[in-house]
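Q: What would this chain look like folded?
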Amino acid sequence: MAKILIAGAGRLGLPLALALSGAGHEVAAIRRGEPRDAPGDIRWYRLDLRNPAALQVLDRDFDLVIVILTPAARSPEGYRQIYQEALDNLLGSLESSRGRPACLFVSATSVYAQNRGEWVDEESPTSPGTYNSMSLLSAEEAVLGWSPNPLVVRFAGIYGPDRMRLVRQLEKPLTIQRTPAAYTNRVHQEDCVGILRFLAGLQLGGRNSHRIYLGADHCPAPKFEMMSWLARTAGLPEPLPLDVAEDAPRNKRCSNRRLVEAGYRFSYPDYKSGYRAMLQGGRPDPDGRPG
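A: My prediction, written as structure tokens:
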């Protein structure tokens, strides 16, 4: 069993910490506040990564560090503080006589600027055009250059029981581009945790043949199509269609082929299975396979 540090035990990191601890790993977790009813078999560090002095209490002999950062403010300064300063503080504090640990970093598909509905994968060029995507790409490069055994997972739009933004948007009149089709890429929160646990297993077992993976479900979909289905399923007003010029932005479609070929099996392979389970309070088929 491995000694694992999770830096950022929030909506993804907390269930991941519980799952890894339940599997027998020795788990430590960092968050700004200790969770209520925290299990005693996880070591909690209540600290702010932006404060380098606070990191002196950390152990130095982890086998794997999983980094799941969230900016305190959605602004250039907020992203700089967390993805540059805080990350630098964390990595600098983990130097030890054993050498640097494996590192798994959570990024996002926003590092791709493709906007014509084209497919992208891990080999597609990145060309971020916003401050948040530039910060993410810079952080990726820092991790890939620092750890002798690094992995980066770029998650698509995350949804789940406590991430109902798209459903709430439908509670008011909403107009969405219908033609040309503008795509949306989704991944369920439970699959994010599953993917992180899966990739951690690859790293700890020395079985990761790639350094970057895309974390998206099997079915990128036109947003108008998805939101119309979601409105009907939730009993909300359907969005109004907007037809615009052919050269209008269309976003991109994210391929998860590398992740699936590595062996990961999705609990929610598409947005319909994920949102239907959320709206009905159901659970996925535990033996579900990619669709």
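Residues 282-291 have pLDDT under 50 and may be disordered.
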